[in-house]
Amino acid sequence: MARVKLYNKKYNVTYVYDSVSYWDPELKQPRSKRKLIGKIDPDTGEIIPTSPRGKRARDKNQSRSAASGPVKNAVPTESETMSNDAISVELEDYKRRLLEVEAKLARSESQIAVLNAERKEIREELAALVKKLR
């Protein structure tokens, strides 16, 4: 079973289906059966389940803004600030690791350049030797 996303240009909505492939012996072709799971919320990217027969999952009296959840404060909380500090430390670690990899790559590239020069010399010597034999 696979998840399939289909974008509807007319309504600007992406629907998500469970798809099962099977062999159709009459047509001698693979076919698929799909079952609608829901649609993707464009803001959060989460799948919003659809209820049977196309009815909305949420209550009709509930407004769209209330369904989206609580509004975040513009000022970060202490726990968010702590996580930002942890992210900063992790970011510095990634930068350090990136610099190490770039240094290794530079060393490797210089070794490759030396080997290419040596290969060129050997080919030239081989060509001269072949020329002498003819």
Set out the fold topology.
Layout: E1 2-8, E2 13-24, E3 29-40, E4 47-49, H1 64-67, H2 78-133
Antiparallel strand pairs: 1-2, 2-3, 3-4
What does this structure look like?
The chain is of the alpha+beta class and 134 residues long. Helices cover 45% and strands 25% of the residues. The chain is built from two helices and four strands; from the N terminus they run ββββαα. Strands 1-2-3-4 form a four-stranded antiparallel β-sheet, with no helix packed on it. The protein is flat. The protein starts with a strand and ends with a helix.
Shape: flat
Classification by helices and strands: alpha+beta
Largest beta-sheet characterization? 4 strands, antiparallel
* Approximate helicity band: 40-55%
Number of strands: 4
Strand content: 25-35%
Key traits:
alpha+beta; 4-stranded antiparallel beta sheet; 45% helix
In summary, what is this structure?
This protein has 134 residues and is an alpha+beta fold. It is 45% helix and 25% strand.
